[in-house]
Every structure is written in C-alpha cells, then in structure tokens.
C-alpha cells in the first residue's frame, strides 16, 4: 500500500472510530441530557421546603407530583384483615388503621385520623409527613420529638416535597435528609453520601418507608436496625434493650409493633439483588410532550406496567400481572391463617393469665412466644405491596409467626388444663376466618 493511501486509510479509520464513538456516546449520554433542564431561578434557603418554589424550574416533575392527589383510595385495613383489631387492642391502631394513599394526602390524613393514633406520641408522629421536618428538627433539636402534636403540626404546610429527595442547586443529584434515617445508617456505619445513584433511587424512599419505634422517655423516632433489617434481627434488638411498646390488655403479652417495612423487605429480594431500585418501578420514565421525565406520581406500578416492568421483563403483561396477583393472593391467604392463629393465642392466654393456681412460668413463656409470633406476622401484614416486594421472605415470616403462635396457644392450653380451668371456645373464630376466606 502506498504511503498516501495508507494515510487516507488511517484517516478514514479515525473518522469511522470517531463516528462510532460519537454514536455510542450519543446513545449513552443522550438519554441523560434529555432529562437535563436549564435552571431558571436558584431556589433560596427560605423557600426550599416549599414545592411551589421549585415549580417554575421543573414544571413537568411538579405536575406529575401533583397527580398523586388522584390516588384517593385508602380503605381501612380492618375491611380485609378484621383480626388486626384484636391484635392491636390497647394501642391507637385498634381505633383506626388505613392503607396508604397518594403522597399529596399525608398531612390531611394525619389531621383527620383518630386522635388516639398520635396522642400518646405527640409531635414525633409528624416526622414522615412533611419536607419541613428536617428543618424543624434542626431548630428544636431532639426536644422536637416530645413536643405537643399541634405545636409542630400547625406549622406544616407542605407534604413530602422536592426538598426531601433533591439537592436544591441540582435536582439530578438526590439528597437524603430525614434525621432518623441518617442516624440509623450512621449507627450501622454506612455512609449514605457514598451511595451510588442507583442505590439512592431506593434510599430516598427508605427515609420514610421503614419501621421504627419511639424511644421511651425521649419519644425519639428510631429504627431497630442495630442487629440487622429482618424481623428476626429486629426482635433480637428489641429483646436486647428490653423494649416493649405495649402490654396486650387481654393476653398480658409484652408486644412490639412493626410499621410499613417496604425497604427492609425489599432488601435481599430477587429484585434488589438484580440491582432494581424503588424508583425503577414506582417512578418510571414517562414522556411528557417531547420531554422524558421520572414520574413523580408514585402509586401502584400495576397502573404503569409498560414503563415499570416491561422495560426489563420479556413476558407478556398478562402473565406478569398474573404472577403478581398470585403472589399477593397467597400472601393474603397466609395472613388470614396467621390472623386466626394469633386470635386463638390471645383468647387462650386471656383465660390462662388470671386463672387461680396457674403455672405462671408457662404463661410467661407463652406470652413471650406471642410477642415474637405476632411480630413476624405483623411485619408482613403492615408492609405495603401484599408480599410482592419479597414473596419468599413474606411467606417464611408468616409461617414462622403461625408456628410461634400455635406453640404459644398449646402452652397456654396446657397451663389452663393443669390448673383445672376450661379452655375457651374458639369455634366462632374458626368460622369467622373461614367466612373471610370465602369472601375473596
Ligand atoms: C417524607 C416521607 C416519605 C418519603 C421520602 C417517601 N414516602 Fe411514600 N408515603 C409516605 C407517606 C406518609 C405515605 C402515606 C400517605 C397517606 O396515606 O396519606 C406514603 C405513601 C406512598 C405510596 C402509596 C400511594 C398510593 O396511592 O396508595 C407509595 C406507592 C409510596 N409512598 C412510594 C414511595 C416511593 C417509591 C418513595 C421514594 C421514591 C417514597 N414513597 C418516598 C411518606 C414518604
Ligand atoms: C420521594 C423522593 C422525591 C421527591 C419528593 C421528589 N423527587 Fe424528583 N426525583 C426523585 C428520583 C428518585 C428521581 C430520579 C433521579 C435519578 O435517577 O437520578 C427524580 C428526578 C427528578 C428530576 C430529574 C429529571 C427527571 O425527571 O428524572 C427533577 C428535575 C426532579 N426530580 C424534580 C422534582 C421536583 C420539582 C419535585 C417536587 C415537586 C420532586 N422532584 C420531588 C425523587 C423525588
Ligand atoms: C419490581 C418492582 C417494584 C419495586 C422495585 C418496588 N416496588 Fe413497591 N410495589 C410494587 C408492586 C407491584 C406493588 C403492588 C401494587 C398493587 O398491589 O397495586 C407495590 C406496592 C407498594 C406500595 C403500596 C402501594 C399501594 O397502592 O398501596 C408501597 C408504599 C411501595 N410499593 C413502596 C415501595 C418502596 C419504598 C420500594 C423500595 C424500597 C418499592 N416499593 C420497590 C412494585 C415494586
Ligand atoms: C430493572 C429491571 C426490572 C424491573 C423494572 C422489574 N423487574 Fe421483575 N425481575 C427482574 C429480574 C432480574 C428478576 C429475576 C430474574 C427472573 O426471575 O426473571 C425479576 C423477577 C421477577 C419476578 C419473579 C421473582 C419473584 O419475586 O417471584 C416477578 C413476578 C417480577 N419480576 C415481576 C415484576 C413486575 C410486576 C415489575 C413491575 C412492577 C417488575 N418485575 C419490574 C428485573 C426487573
């Protein structure tokens, strides 16, 4: 080959390489640049907690966030799980306990709920209900948690907001701001600022969609994560600090109460192990005009399966939906069996507990088994998604809960018979549980 031709070939190759690299880079980065918008107006520290201040810069995200007001359904948990009323007897949960609805409603809902729910724990109950909370905790310090409910609630105007999840100068950077979450991660020696982008797309939700308890005396919202995130490790933690949330008035058992453990169940699920984030399913990319944005209308991903699921799954939508429904149905069936098992435990312990001459040690052991068993099953019952986020662990925890409660019932029955008492009639409960199953 002549020198000049060689030179031309090298030049041509260089052009080809440049074009290929250019196209690839375009494919790779184009997706991201498409999402970028020019910032019109810097968001000031005085306004950062107010969604309205972000509206001019990010109208499409703002509009999609506002759509959460269309997600209005929040039926009572008691409609589908009547046994919860007995499980929670002695706490505010027995007065009123609803399924969640759109993010736009959180302030309305805490203001409308039966006062028994927040009265015992005061201001602390507002902690996951507003973008203004991180600022208020900074202002009042840990005193915030034990202040009067209204003293805090009356100051709240904004629900969860842009500020909860975004840096003010650049919203393509996610921010983590909820103090109880940051403290819990620090206690586990996890530096959340080091988390990669995909992980942050889950951690922003984990700021609130997790379980917690109120520390005795200070009322401080704290996550029981020191031993790990599973129900088993949480029980271990609660036992190690000798914590009891309330004593069940009928059974006398020292109980603990889990809350919406979406993050904890999602951890170590099939999807999490595959690198999927909460936002992948709940905040999928949507086209708005010629712009592509992350949907901020968080709700059921089953309403957006094309964008939420079929980006990864090759199966048909119907097949996939069938899988979800069958997981949820199996979870609910097991929940109903768990509800029947714990009902028997409570009714049997109610008789055993005060029986003259009863073996107190046996009763105490049965009450401890009830504590553990109810915790396992309650974790699944109160975690949103009806088992979908982690089917395997949900089934396993329900099975464990059923076993522990059956063991508690057996022990309490023994104690009753040994003391010459009469076993309670549980046939009405069995009938009730059976009826509930046929309803579905
Ligand atoms: C500041 C706390 C907070 C953060 C952060 C948060 N949520 Fe929520 N979320 C809530 C509360 C409180 C509710 C219940 C609102 C109600 O029922 O009034 C809720 C409700 C929901 C619902 C139920 C919606 C419906 O229509 O039934 C979904 C789904 C949800 N959140 C998903 C997410 C996802 C995904 C993230 C992260 C991208 C997230 N949330 C971040 C507090 C938060
Ligand atoms: C519960 C957390 C949460 C809240 C509240 C929230 N966002 Fe986002 N937002 C996200 C997540 C997650 C992404 C995706 C970021 C990523 O992939 O890096 C995102 C992305 C964005 C982006 C980047 C472009 C895009 O659409 O992906 C903008 C701009 C944005 N949000 C604006 C807002 C505005 C404005 C508000 C308030 C009205 C808001 N966000 C409220 C979690 C939130
Ligand atoms: C692989 C997809 C996927 C991922 C990842 C995922 N979810 Fe879900 N989520 C679902 C599905 C499906 C449902 C059930 C919706 C239904 O029954 O209508 C659901 C339900 C929920 C609900 C209840 C919604 C309602 O309408 O009652 C909440 C809250 C929630 N998820 C939060 C989260 C949080 C927080 C994360 C991350 C820790 C997460 N989800 C991760 C798919 C997902
Ligand atoms: C980012 C990719 C991704 C997204 C988005 C995603 N999945 Fe998956 N999903 C996976 C992977 C990977 C697996 C594990 C491998 C497999 O079983 O195919 C999986 C497994 C599953 C399974 C079987 C495992 C189990 O837990 O029983 C179901 C059912 C499922 N996904 C449903 C959904 C639904 C419904 C959605 C949307 C709401 C969704 N997925 C969104 C990647 C994804």
Task: Name its key features.
single chain; 440 residues; mainly alpha; Flavocytochrome C3, Chain A, domain 2; Butyryl-CoA Dehydrogenase, subunit A, domain 3; 2 domains; two-stranded antiparallel ribbon; two-stranded antiparallel sheet; 6 strands; globular; disordered C terminus; binds heme C
Write the layout of secondary structure elements.
Blueprint: H1 3-35, H2 51-55, H3 59-66, H4 77-80, H5 84-87, H6 106-112, H7 133-140, H8 149-153, H9 162-165, H10 179-187, H11 197-206, E1 213-214, E2 221-222, H12 231-240, E3 246-247, E4 254-255, H13 262-266, H14 270-273, H15 278-282, E5 285-288, E6 291-294, H16 305-308, H17 317-353, H18 360-382, H19 391-418, H20 427-439
Antiparallel strand pairs: 1-2, 3-4, 5-6
The structure holds heme C (4 copies).
One heme C (HEC) is lined by residues 35, 51, 54, 58, 61-62, 65, 160-162, 164-166, 171-172, 174, 197, 201, 204, 279, 283, 293-294, 296.
């Amino acid at each position: 080959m002549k020198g000049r031709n060689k030179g031309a070939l090298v030049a041509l190759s260089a052009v080809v390489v440049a074009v290929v690299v250019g196209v690839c880079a375009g494919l790779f980065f184009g997706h991201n640049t498409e999402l970028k918008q020019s910032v019109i107006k810097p968001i000031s520290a005085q306004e950062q907690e107010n969604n309205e201040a972000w509206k001019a810069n990010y109208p499409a995200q703002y509009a999609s966030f506002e759509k959460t007001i269309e997600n209005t359904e929040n039926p009572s948990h008691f409609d589908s799980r009547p046994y919860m009323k007995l499980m929670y007897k002695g706490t505010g949960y027995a007065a009123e306990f609803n399924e969640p609805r759109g993010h736009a409603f959180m302030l309305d809902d805490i203001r409308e709920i039966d006062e028994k729910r927040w009265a015992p724990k005061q201001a602390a109950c507002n902690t996951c209900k507003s973008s203004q909370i991180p600022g208020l905790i900074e202002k009042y310090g840990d005193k915030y948690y034990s202040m009067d409910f209204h003293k805090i609630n009356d100051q709240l105007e904004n629900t969860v907001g842009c500020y909860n999840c975004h840096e003010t100068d650049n919203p393509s950077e996610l921010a983590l701001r909820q103090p109880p979450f940051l403290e819990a991660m620090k206690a586990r020696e996890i530096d959340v600022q080091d988390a990669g982008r995909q992980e942050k797309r889950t951690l922003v939700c984990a700021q609130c969609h997790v379980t917690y308890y109120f520390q005795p005396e200070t009322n401080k919202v704290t996550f029981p994560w020191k031993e790990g995130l599973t129900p088993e490790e949480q029980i271990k933690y609660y036992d190690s600090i000798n914590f009891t949330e309330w004593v069940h008035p009928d059974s006398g058992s020292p109980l603990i109460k889990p809350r919406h453990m979406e993050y904890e169940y999602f951890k170590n699920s099939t999807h999490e192990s595959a690198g999927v984030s909460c936002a992948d399913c709940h905040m999928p990319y949507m086209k708005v005009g010629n712009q592509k944005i992350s949907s901020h209308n968080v709700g059921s991903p089953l309403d957006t399966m094309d964008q939420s699921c079929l980006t990864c799954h090759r199966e048909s939508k119907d097949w996939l939906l069938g899988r979800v429904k069958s997981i949820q149905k199996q979870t609910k069936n097991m929940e109903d069996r768990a509800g029947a098992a714990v009902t028997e435990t409570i009714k049997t312990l109610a008789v055993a507990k005060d029986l003259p001459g009863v073996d107190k040690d046996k009763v105490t052991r049965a009450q401890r088994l009830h504590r553990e068993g109810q915790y396992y099953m309650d974790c699944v019952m109160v975690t949103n998604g009806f088992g979908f986020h982690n089917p395997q662990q949900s089934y396993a925890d329900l099975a464990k809960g059923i076993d522990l409660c059956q063991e508690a019932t057996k022990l309490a029955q023994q104690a009753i018979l040994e003391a010459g008492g009469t076993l309670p009639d549980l046939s009405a409960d069995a009938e009730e549980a059976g009826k509930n199953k046929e309803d579905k």
